[in-house]
Specification:
44% of the residues lie in helices and 22% in strands. Helix 3 packs across helix 5. By secondary structure, the protein is an alpha/beta fold.
Length: 199
Amino acid sequence: MGVDVNELVRSIAAEVLKQLQGDETKDCVMILAERDCVLASKIEKKLGQDVELIFFGEETMNRNISRYIIPSMCVCEMSDLAIGKAHGPIMTEVLKLLLLGNTVETFEFGHRAYSETAPGPLYSLYESYVKTLAGFGLKLFQAKAPDAIRFREGLVTEKVVSNTGAQGASTLMVPVNAQVTPLAVETAQNLNINIQKCL
């Protein structure tokens, strides 16, 4: 029985292409700003080092964009976007992403830096824009909540359970011999947190 050399070459080439394309399809985060080393460093601190950052205008080549982030929103950008307008290529892309039903996150809304000095009605106007933009899908950045929190001490109190809830986790993993206070159990039930004795 002879080996078909052409078929062997085709199958090897197909496998190599599959593996190469597999490396290019990992999730990444699109930063809606021009590449800047200082900005990239700040973003990596917020997102963690294990994410791939793609900046506005860079080639995405088969990559899956898992998040869209605009680092900050100045008051002019907020005002325009709240009434459906966009100026410049980055804000036009933000508007396009929102129109396509994507969520866009921002680390900060510029007007909040003036919360202590801005006149109440002006500050309220900008806060109303924040609510309008949230309705469009533009929201304040939130770090991904962990699924579970590990607690290694022997006494589980209400405060430990509350802190788990504040971090967005749904499971608190504790040592098998840990003492769980009745108030901690009640708080866990109220917050829908599963206390799992497994460490």
